[in-house]
Design goal:
Elements: E1 9-11, E2 16-17, E3 23-32, E4 35-44, E5 50-56, H1 77-87, E6 91-95, H2 105-108, H3 114-128, E7 134-142, H4 144-152, E8 159-163, H5 170-181, H6 183-199, H7 210-213, H8 215-224, H9 229-232, E9 240-245, H10 253-261, E10 266-271, H11 284-289, H12 300-312
Parallel strand pairs: 5-6, 5-7, 7-8, 8-9, 9-10
Antiparallel strand pairs: 1-3, 2-3, 3-4, 4-6
Helix pairs in contact: 3-4, 5-6
Length: 313
């Protein structure tokens, strides 16, 4: 992993306070060398000290609020979680993933590794470790971010929370998901991953799978498939909470159970009717629709579980 040597912070706007609360929000710009990581910090200005949750988002290009405009995802679930935790006296920081900011892309597109995502989290940890407004730091990793956050844990992290985190290497996850849709594609994906492991590249990508195995993705996948979350979590000694929803179509509850079995310091919570974007869902139709609308409610059971865990340690 490249050594991160430079952290710059710009206060982009003065704090503003919501009229009905004491919550202050600041737009921050952190740098990992030349990579810009714009984000939002929010907290209760009347508390002299409070815990700070740093949210690490999942795959694709989600912004600090949990939206992916290129994919039509507008669930706003990170923003909703921010508001709920702030209301319970917990500070919250989230940032745009490095591939959201367009000016970043030419700087890493030909040299993009999984470890770079871990470094981005470490930049945030390094910045907030000496911030006297916060007496604890909690890393919350969602989906792909579960592993990213797990690998970023250091002495500055007081608690670690995995939400909808896969327990298996990413190649196994992709192959399994493709097999469920089309066994022939699953077989081709398995061959592509084997070629990646042997040669670090794929000579001829199947056109139906180019969104996964495009040339620009291959280097990232080579680094990503080296990690097995079920092995990595064995090294975690930080108090850990592992959460999954039983309506999650992308990461099943069995993944959370496997992570829990491999972690000596974890608690496990399976949340009824919660899906992958942390919404309470009653039907499969609503499950799909909730990715594209913020009108679906965030799981209240999730909020209660997080608040109780964070404040009990």
């Amino acid at each position: 992993m490249r050594k991160y040597t430079k952290i710059l912070l710009y206060l982009l706007s003065t704090a503003f306070v919501f009229s009905q609360t004491n919550i202050t929000s600041e737009d921050l710009l952190l740098y990992n060398e030349n990579i810009q990581l714009p984000g939002t910090l929010s907290y209760d200005k009347d508390q002299t000290q409070q815990p700070l949750a740093i949210f690490v988002q999942g795959s694709g290009n989600p912004d600090r609020n949990g939206n992916q405009l290129g994919f039509g995802v507008k669930a706003n679930y990170i923003k909703q979680l921010r508001d709920k935790l702030n209301a319970n006296g917990i500070g919250f920081y989230s940032y745009d993933k490095r591939n959201v900011t367009k000016s970043n892309i030419p700087l890493f597109i030909d040299d993009f590794s999984f470890e770079m995502l871990v470094e981005d989290v470490q930049i945030a940890l390094s910045h907030f470790k000496s911030d006297q407004r916060f007496d604890e730091i909690i890393l919350i990793g969602h989906s792909q971010g579960s592993l990213v956050a797990m690998l970023a844990i250091d002495e500055n992290v007081d608690q670690y929370i995995s939400i909808a985190g896969p327990a298996e290497p990413i190649d196994q996850t992709i192959i399994r998901q493709l097999n469920a849709q089309n066994p022939e594609f699953g077989k081709i994906a398995e061959q592509h991953f084997q070629e990646l492991k042997e040669t670090d590249s794929i000579a001829n990508v199947n056109p139906f799978l180019v969104s996964i195995f495009s040339r620009v993705n291959q280097g990232f996948l080579v680094s990503y498939i080296q990690y097995n979350p079920s092995d990595a979590i064995k090294q975690v000694r930080t108090p850990t909470l592992i959460i999954n929803g039983d309506k999650d179509l992308q990461v099943g509850a069995s993944e959370a159970e496997k992570l829990h079995q491999n972690c000596s310091v974890s608690e496990l919570k399976i949340i009824k009717n919660m899906n992958h974007v942390l919404k309470t869902i009653e039907s499969d139709t609503d499950n799909q629709a909730s990715y594209y609308s913020e009108e679906y409610p965030l799981s209240e059971d999730l909020v209660t579980t997080l608040v109780n865990f964070i404040k009990s340690k």
